[in-house]
Amino acid sequence: MTASEFTSRLDAQVAFLKEADRLKSILRATPLIDGSRKENSAEHSWHVMLYALVLADQAGPEVRIDRVIRMLLLHDIVEIDAGDHPIHGNVDHAAQEAAEAAAADRLFGLLPDDQRDGFRALWDEFEAAETPDAVFAKAIDRFQSPVTNLAGNGLGWRGYDVTLEKLDARVGRPISRGAPGLWAWLRPKLAAFLGQPG
Amino acid sequence: MTASEFTSRLDAQVAFLKEADRLKSILRATPLIDGSRKENSAEHSWHVMLYALVLADQAGPEVRIDRVIRMLLLHDIVEIDAGDHPIHGNVDHAAQEAAEAAAADRLFGLLPDDQRDGFRALWDEFEAAETPDAVFAKAIDRFQSPVTNLAGNGLGWRGYDVTLEKLDARVGRPISRGAPGLWAWLRPKLAAFLGQPG
Asked: Which one of A85, A171, B53, B142 is least enclosed by Cβ atoms within 10 Å?
């Protein structure tokens, strides 16, 4: 690589990293546990990576936890352009998928071509939720919010019509697919909190 | 493992993960690039992990980038008890080290013993900054703030007496030790911004 190619590569990498700063201003529906404010998608990404590392023993033997962590590092970057869509809100899924794909084109497109393609492949794998790594990453991503909401006395659920039936479908299904032990642990706590027979 | 041991282990892991939520309320001296507010240590941790992944080609061949990412995932958790200390502020380093060691005892001590010991070893390695992985992790951790401060027109440096000489010592030394290409790229930009001969 010539000095000029080296500089161009680094210029592109830093341009992407500076643009990524904006993920810190994308707010999610879930508040912090202390209720002081809403969580943003950058700190959420850090937290779910920590969940993945700590809860790695809940994954099947074929899961490579460092790949899971890389997926979770990248998984929400598209929200810089496409926004966050609360799991208990009503969303036009096709429009949302199109917006996220366009966001991935633009944002990963800031990087040098080799990294653009590698990051996009990892993000596509996460979104498809078919490989063991992606299935576990999705389970972890879904597990953090209900744990936070329980710890915060359900503050993050107010304004949404949250029932055990809905949690079973939107949260329980992806968690039990990738980390059945986590769902077995969580579901009775959700049932007790919501006052519904588990 | 019996069902009861399994549940105790998961209870301890989730207790740690909930406590970690508090890192989102630890504020750093550096503002977001858009100047809207100060950065917190959880979103900073996410951002430096992204820096490490994107800038992995700046590391020496012996650096294992997934270990670097794990170090950066954990590196600031002690600030929940010990607080953040701005690099350009004046700090009693011995008192700060003692506070951080006590914080590591308490916070990693929430985890099951095997994870407590593994996480502590990784954090100690980062702090010691002797292994190639730790030296690169420290370089990346130091690189993000000046990039952010330049992009934000120096907002994060106001109130501190920042000179090129101080940046050479506090930022340049750790960056050039772990990632000399990054310092060669950054230093002329810092000199130009500060209006000092580089």
From this structure: A85
pLDDT at residue A198, as a whole number: 64
Distance CA B94, CA B96 (A): 5
| Cα(A58)–Cα(A102) distance, integer angstroms | 34
Selected for mutation to probe chain B from A46, A63, A175, A185 (highest B CB count within 10 Å) is A46
Three-state DSSP at B57 gives helix
Residue A92 pLDDT = 87
Could you give the CA distance from residue B133 to residue B136 in angstroms, rounded to a whole number?
A: 5
Stretch A138-149: mean pLDDT: 97
Cα(B3)–Cα(B23) distance, integer angstroms: 32
Average pLDDT, chain A: 95
- Mutate which of B28, B54, B74 to test chain A, going by most A C-beta atoms within 10 A? B54
User: Model's pTM, two decimal places?
Assistant: 0.96
> How confident is the model at residue B196, as a pLDDT?
75
Write out pLDDT tens, residues B127-162: 999 999 999 999 999 999 999 999 999 998 988 889
Per the CB < 8 A criterion, the answer to whether B140 and B134 are in contact is: no
Does the structural domain B8-193 have CATH classification 3.40.50.10350? Answer: no
The whole-angstrom separation of Cα B154 and Cα B157 is: 5
Q: Which amino acid is at A98?
A: A
**Confidence band, pLDDT 50/70/90 cuts, at residue A88:** confident
For chain A, give the number of residues.
Answer: 198
Alpha helix stretches (DSSP H) within A55-153: 65-74, 79-82, 93-108, 113-128, 132-151
Contact B21 A54 (CB under 8 A): no
Looking at residue B198, its pLDDT comes to 64
Residue B80: how many other CB atoms lie within 10 Å: 20
Going by their DSSP bridges, the two strands B38-40 and B27-31 should be labelled as antiparallel
Measure in Å the smallest separation between the Cα of B95 and chain A Cα atoms. 28
Place of tokens 């929430």: B110
User: Which residues of chain B, if any, have pLDDT below 50?
Assistant: none
The DSSP 8-state label assigned to residue B170 in this structure reads: I
pLDDT at B190: 96
- Answer for the pair B149, B166: CB distance below 8 angstroms, yes or no: no
